[in-house]
């Protein structure tokens, strides 16, 4: 992958990268020190705030989407789950994603590159757009919402990622998108750098993906 085409947007400041794992994801254990960061009380290099949450919601509202209730940003779900003590370890890639999203306040999407198909793009979705987001077959209406899409349609966003491209035990290559905003300049890059370091410390090889017009 060399680039993701990005439609013009006045607020979006996304960062994307790929990671190649040393072994299939199901064979990789999450280090205990990473699991310990799945708590709002953990000492982390970034901290969320009300200002961050407001800026993220502004980003998602721009296309007409309403980021409230069950459609609120995934980063807000993580904070609530952590506060309630139910944010558990899933796998190395998702755990690192959840840690960086939890503490930074920025939503992050991560997909299995072998389950998606190029070309990839980022754009606000048209009326009627939707996809299945869990194994139970539930769907999310993504009209008006910024989404990462592949050749088969939208597959990830700042609220819920699609079931068809989620990581699995066989995953060896992933694409991550940090949904940053120009209201928080540079923050998405900081989050990406931290996420990449967590994966590299576990043996992954990462590379920045260019975002183009």
Order of helices and strands: EEHHHHEEEEEEEHE
| CATH third-level topology | Phenylalanyl-tRNA Synthetase, Chain B, domain 3
By DSSP, the count of extended strands is 10
Identify the CATH architecture. 3-Layer(bba) Sandwich
Helix tally equals 5
- The separation of the N and C termini measures 16 Å
Radius of gyration: 16 Å
Count of individual domains: 1
Q: Quaternary arrangement of the chains shown?
A: single chain
Poorly predicted ranges:
none
Q: Averaging pLDDT over every residue, what do you get?
A: 96
Task: Name the helicity range.
Answer: 25-40%
In the CATH hierarchy, what is the class? Answer: Alpha Beta
> How large is the share of residues in beta strands?
15-25%
Structural class, by secondary structure, is: alpha+beta
Strand order of the largest sheet: 3-9-2-10-1-4-7-8
Q: What is the global morphology?
A: globular
In CATH terms, the superfamily is Phenylalanyl-trna Synthetase, Chain B, domain 3
**Biggest sheet details:** 8 strands, mixed
Task: Summarize the structure in words.
The chain has 5 helices and 10 strands; from the N terminus they run E-E-H-H-H-H-E-E-E-E-E-E-E-H-E. Helix 3 (74-83) crosses helix 4 and helix 4 (92-104) runs antiparallel to helix 5. The chain is of the alpha+beta class and 213 residues long. It has a single domain, classed as Phenylalanyl-tRNA Synthetase, Chain B, domain 3, CATH 3.50.40. The mean pLDDT is 96. The protein has an 8-stranded mixed sheet, covered by helices on one side. The protein is globular. The chain starts with a strand and ends with a strand.
């Amino acid at each position: 992958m060399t680039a993701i085409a990005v439609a013009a947007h006045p607020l979006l400041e996304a960062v994307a990268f790929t990671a190649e794992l040393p072994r299939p994801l199901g064979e990789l254990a999450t280090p205990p020190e990473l699991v310990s960061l799945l708590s709002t009380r953990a000492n982390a290099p970034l901290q969320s705030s009300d200002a961050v949450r407001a800026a993220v919601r502004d980003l998602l509202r721009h296309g007409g989407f309403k980021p409230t209730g069950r459609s609120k940003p995934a980063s807000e779900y993580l904070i609530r789950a952590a506060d309630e003590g139910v944010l558990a370890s899933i796998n190395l890639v998702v755990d690192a994603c959840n840690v960086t999203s939890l503490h930074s306040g920025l939503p992050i999407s991560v997909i299995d590159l072998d389950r998606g198909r190029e070309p990839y793009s980022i754009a606000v979705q048209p009326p009627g757009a939707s996809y299945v987001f869990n194994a139970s077959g539930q769907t999310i209406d993504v009209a008006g919402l910024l989404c990462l899409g592949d050749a088969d349609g939208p597959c990830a966003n700042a609220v819920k990622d699609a079931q068809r491209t989620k990581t699995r035990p066989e995953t060896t290559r992933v694409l991550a998108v940090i949904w940053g905003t120009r209201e928080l300049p540079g923050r998405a890059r900081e989050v990406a750098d931290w996420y990449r370091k967590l994966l590299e410390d576990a043996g992954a090889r990462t590379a920045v993906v260019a975002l183009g017009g």
